[in-house]
Structure formats: structure tokens, C-alpha cells
């Protein structure tokens, strides 16, 4: 799924100096919500996916990292620096796109990007134009005339320009067509291969699965797990669909090791099975079937399965 990154970055994340560290971080809002007891370490060159439904706490974590809001307790470090005391120095090394991107409506993308380039220490225009060209961004019309997708492109160019050491991307492909989404995925992979770090917050699970080595699963403000994508896949059940010549006994697979769920509809049998599939094949060798499908779950199915297991 993401072998190119995994081959490059197969070191143990805990043995490499972290770019992002959160140590028992709490943030509570007066209106409720926030995040609770978040501890996390992300290393240089890693693409880390942060997954959870809307309102789970993903954007709160990014705002904490940027010192836009401050924790009630806990410690946050980026590049080994304190997120509060060294926030100005840290921001010089970060590219960021917010989930609720806002732009100056009367300005053109050229004017906005030129301003951001100046603020980032004078990034030459020649270093920005390749990104503009790759995304086919119209830069000389006022922002108020642009579609949501083109506004998002402005934010993405601003985030990626200057090759920042750390990219904080909050729902980065929102409003983009599939071709442009793939271009952004390629930009993320390229950044990782160059040794830069990417923190990617999204609820689009397939998108994260294409790019990230590890994912953090957050629910109701709590980090319930941090998993390698490949390990998450191994822990998930295979999805099995079988067509029998005649209606099967609903208890046909009841003794099968690793059986999680099953149901029979007419001549069709559907099941989720974890672990070794050889017992499934052995059992089917004694009966007449007309069709068989065994597939690995998509990331969304893995994610939902993990959430179900965390409730057990």
C-alpha cells in the first residue's frame, strides 16, 4: 500500500529523535470537548496519519502544536523545542494548511503567496512556480472568484513552498478533484523521502492509508491507539463471500478458528475471519460451491473493526 515509504523508513520510531512530542497533554474547552492525556512521538521523515471522526480532537491537536491554543497541562515539543517558549522559531520550520482555510478575498493568489513567501524569509518566486504549475492554479484572479478547490490549492502551495521540515496538514485534500488529490499524495511522499515529516489529519481513511506508515486513532478526545498501517491490516478480518449450490447450514463455519461475524442469505454465506485461512479452504473442500471471494478489508473497514474491538 505504501511500500516505498515503509522501505525507506523501517526504523523503530522510538529509537529516532522525535520531531513532535506530546507528553500527557490535556486541553479542555469551557463549552466541553478537547483532548485528554495525549502522549505521542513522531520522528523525522515519518508520515503520520491522525484519524478520527469530526469533533474527535484532530484539529485541537494541530492548533496545540502551532501554539494557537495552549494546553491546560502537559508538555509539547517540536524539533526538541518548547512549543510555547520557542513558538516563533518553530513556525519558521513548519508548513501548515488548516481545515477551515480562510484567505484574503480581495487579493489574488499571486499577492497572497508573495506575502507568505516574504514572511517565510524571502522564498524566491522561482521556487514557488513549480507547485503552481503542477496544481494548475490560476494566480491572477481575486480569491473571491475562485472555487473551493482552487482556494484549497492556494493553501497547499503556501504550506509546501520552501520545503518546510514539518508539514501539518489538516484535511488537505478537501474540495479537490481526484487527480489533484493524487498530486498532493505524491507531494507528501516526496517530502517524506526527502527526510521531512508530515502530520496528516483526515477522516478520509483511504487517503491516509496511501501515505502514512503509522496512524493514531482518536475518539472523544482520547488517543485510543497508535498502529502501523501494515499491522492494522494484519489484525483485521478477511472478508469472505461464498456462493453454495444449495442453501448452507448457518452453523457451517461455527467451529472455525478466528470467525468474527457470519450470516447466510439464501445460497450466500458472508463471514469475517481473522488469522490463518487454511482451515477455511480445508472446510470448503468437502462441499460444493459455485463462487468464492476472499479479500482484505479496506482501511475504513480496518478502522471500524479496531473501534469495535476497543469497546470490548
The biggest sheet, with number of strands, parallel, antiparallel or mixed sense and barrel status, is: 6 strands, mixed
Structural class: alpha/beta
Mean pLDDT: 86
* Helix fraction bin: 25-40%
N-end to C-end Cα span: 29 Å
* Strand runs, count: 14
Question: How would you describe what is shown here?
Answer:
By secondary structure, the protein is an alpha/beta fold. The two termini are 29 Å apart. Strands 6-7-8-3-9-10 form a six-stranded mixed β-sheet, with helices on both faces. Strands 2-1-4-5 form a four-stranded antiparallel β-sheet, with helices on one face. The protein has helices at residues 3-8, 58-65, 87-91, 109-119, 125-134, 148-160, 178-193, 205-211, 229-235, 278-284, 299-311, and strands at residues 18-28, 34-43, 47-51, 73-78, 81-82, 94-97, 166-170, 197-202, 214-219, 222-228, 238-244, 259-265, 268-273, 289-295. The chain is built from eleven helices and 14 strands. Mean pLDDT is 86; it is low at 1-15. Helices cover 33% and strands 29% of the residues.
In short:
By secondary structure, the chain is an alpha/beta fold.
Key words describing this protein structure:
312 residues, alpha/beta, six-stranded mixed beta sheet, four-stranded antiparallel beta sheet, 14 strands, elongated, disordered N terminus
Secondary structure elements and their pairing?
Blueprint: H1 3-8, E1 18-28, E2 34-43, E3 47-51, H2 58-65, E4 73-78, E5 81-82, H3 87-91, E6 94-97, H4 109-119, H5 125-134, H6 148-160, E7 166-170, H7 178-193, E8 197-202, H8 205-211, E9 214-219, E10 222-228, H9 229-235, E11 238-244, E12 259-265, E13 268-273, H10 278-284, E14 289-295, H11 299-311
Parallel strand pairs: 3-8, 3-9, 6-7, 7-8
Antiparallel strand pairs: 1-2, 1-4, 4-5, 9-10, 11-13, 11-14, 12-13
